[in-house]
Design a protein that fits this description.
Number of helices: 6
Number of strands: 2
Helix content: 55-70%
Radius of gyration: 20 Å
Number of domains: 1
Low-confidence stretches: 6-17
Shape: globular
Strand order of the largest sheet: 1-2
Mean pLDDT: 82
């Protein structure tokens, strides 16, 4: 590659041709795949395991959060990944701010010993954030609705 003629070469930039999408705004099929990946991550972090006896679901976030400070910071970093992906998918600033507020609130309360861990198991910030993102993408047309709205009518012929 000739770096003298292409100043952007080697720095992660690409030259875009007509009809190309920007690398930061995925196509609708990519959005759906990204959202499915985020939903799987949120499930793992917030509700992957069932606690027998009390019939309550918890995830890796609650388990890792039992380790003082380090566990809560690790959970916040993973939750921040979800927020960053939302930003990459084109979520507006107000939505990204709301999602980040969920992450900070969950992390701050989660740092309180014992009571914070119980709160962390109940709040489920990752699932909340992915649901907010899905709702936004469906509403703005960036994603096909997961459910069909309306009333079913039986037609007898």
């Amino acid at each position: 590659m000739d770096f003298a003629r292409d100043p952007g070469a080697g720095r992660g930039t690409t030259r875009m041709g007509p009809g190309d999408t920007t690398p930061f705004r995925p196509k609708p099929d990519d959005r759906e795949a990204t959202l499915l990946r985020l939903e799987a991550l949120a499930h793992l972090m917030d509700s992957a395991f069932l606690i027998p006896g009390i019939n309550r679901r918890v995830g890796m976030d609650a388990i890792v959060g039992l380790v003082p400070i380090i566990g809560d910071v690790a959970g916040m970093l993973i939750a921040s990944y979800v927020v960053n992906e939302a930003r990459r998918l084109g979520a507006p600033r107000w939505l990204v701010a709301r999602m980040m507020a969920n992450v900070v609130f969950d992390g701050a309360i989660g740092m309180v010993p014992l009571a914070g861990d119980l709160f962390d198991a109940a709040f489920k910030a990752n699932r909340r954030n992915v649901a907010l993102l899905r709702r936004h993408l469906e509403k703005t047309g960036g994603l096909r609705p997961n459910e069909i709205e309306g009333t079913a009518v039986r037609l007898d012929g």
